[in-house]
Amino acid sequence: MPPQGSQLHILAADANPALLDLLWSQPLDRWPEQIVAALPRGISRHVVRFVYLEDKMLAVKEIGEDVAFHEYEALRELVRLGAPVVTPLAVVTGRQTANGERLNAALVTRHLPFSLPYRSLFGHRQRAETVTRLINALDVLMVRLHLLGFYWGDVSLSNTLFRRDAGSFAAYLVDAETGEMHPDLPEKLREYDMDVARTNIIGELMDLQAGEELAPEVDAVAIGDAFVARYRRLWEELTEKTEFQVDEKWKVTERIHRLNSLGFDVDEMSLSTGRDGTRVFIQPKVVEPGHYRRRIMRLTGIDVEENQARRMVNDMEQYRMDSGHPTMPESVSAHEWLTNVFEPTVNAIPRELRGKLQPAELFHEVLEHRWFISQHQHRDVPQREAVASFVDNVLRHRRDEVSFVGEAPRSLSENPGAVTGDTAY
Ligand SMILES: Nc1ncnc2c1ncn2[C@@H]1O[C@H](COP(=O)(O)OP(=O)(O)OP(=O)(O)O)[C@@H](O)[C@H]1O
Ligand SMILES: [Mg+2]
């Protein structure tokens, strides 16, 4: 329960005393420009401000006390379950001005580095493909949340943040005000979530078209429908019971491979035979996403998005093949690959340009570029040469597209202190 009285009170899991120094006695919309970071923000009813606190960028949202506590708890639970959501840091209550006027509570979350609100991706008359990639990412997010039993209640593009993921996007939940956890999420609630999502997405896309930020020929309603259809396919693929003959056991393996290729892991598979003993039914019990991501985490300690991780795993495999020791243990080849390939590639990017993209995304783009120029020049361009060409011919020219705030990451292992802003893909 929120505390009574008017004294400033901060509830935080990892209490940082510096939080007390923020200007809690002033409404957020009057926080001075010097302390507020001008990062891109989605549309919202509440006032949201970004501030630096020590070396971290925070997002502060002014909302009612009950809602703040509810959202804080919902986000904490989702973080605990490993869902892609913003990390909650604190709820601040008992705020009042110097004249004793009471102010709304504040929810503090960690700013999601390298995240982009969907509107920042537009403004350059984006093509339908960009919209499709965003929608696909939102589909995966919805399925992940529903598998965990989370009912969102207010799904929209504005309540989602996007991060680049090897040419596509990964979606994160940013607004959990209306969310609820259910031990067994009823289908009706999933359907309701999808209904709200469809309506909101169509409205948001039409809004972009009205503002001439999205090409008028993009069919918003068809995209809304495709969003729902893709969600249904994905949900079925992940949860449906499949039936096969006893002598078709390879179908189990096939199913697992299919789930893995969608980026999900099978935790448990329930197997049962039919009455006559000739048929077998399988149902993946718990499926968790992030197959490649966890593999990269385990092998290198780097936390990246799923497609980036897949790319890294493939490159690592290639490295092992080319090393002349194809049987070397994966843990050894991963370490060598990190030291001899990944780190030198990212470190070869000039420091001032490193904040433009996450290291894993830079790596992905360098590989794409290398493939492109090798094909063009009919020769196998070495990595070192590809990086130099990428920096000069691609990365430098992105300057106008990126509003770069803060410092560039100093090394790979550090949490990036830099955040990309408006970027058109
Ligand atoms: N931790 C964060 N990291 C990055 N951006 C954030 C973060 N928290 C909030 N934002 C930005 O602020 C915007 C508004 O946040 P949010 O959706 O929680 O506000 P809201 O007022 O509750 O929205 P609504 O109008 O949907 O109720 C988001 O779209 C996002 O762009
Ligand atoms: Mg919102």
Largest sheet: 5 strands, antiparallel
Q: Helix-strand pattern, N to C?
A: EEEHEEEHEEEEHHEHEEHHHHHEE
Q: What does the average pLDDT come to?
A: 84
Strand content: 15-25%
- What is the 3D form? globular
The proportion of residues forming helix, as a percent range, comes to 25-40%
Counting DSSP H or I runs of 4 or more residues, the number of helices is 10
Category from helices, strands and their pairing: alpha+beta
The small molecules bound here are:
adenosine-5'-triphosphate, magnesium ion
First-last Cα distance: 45 Å
Query: What is the gyration radius calculated from CA atoms?
Result: 24 Å
Find the count of extended strands (DSSP E, 2+ residues): 15
Low-confidence stretches: 399-425
Name the strands of the widest sheet in spatial order.
Answer: 1-4-5-3-2
Describe what is shown at a glance.
The chain contains 10 helices and 15 strands.
Polypeptide structure, described:
With 425 residues, this protein is of the alpha+beta class. It is built from ten helices and 15 strands. The protein has helices at 65-80, 128-147, 187-210, 220-239, 250-261, 291-300, 306-322, 330-347, 359-377, 383-393; strands spanning 9-12, 48-53, 56-63, 88-93, 105-110, 116-117, 150-151, 160-165, 168-173, 180-181, 242-245, 264-273, 279-289, 405-406, 418-419. The chain has a five-stranded antiparallel beta sheet with strand order 1-4-5-3-2, covered by helices on one side. It has a three-stranded antiparallel beta sheet with strand order 6-8-9. The chain starts with 8 loop residues before the first strand and ends in a 6-residue tail after the last strand. Residues 41-42, 44-46, 48, 59, 61, 86, 109-112, 115, 117, 158-159, 161, 174-175, 177 line the site of adenosine-5'-triphosphate. Adenosine-5'-triphosphate binds next to β3 and β5.
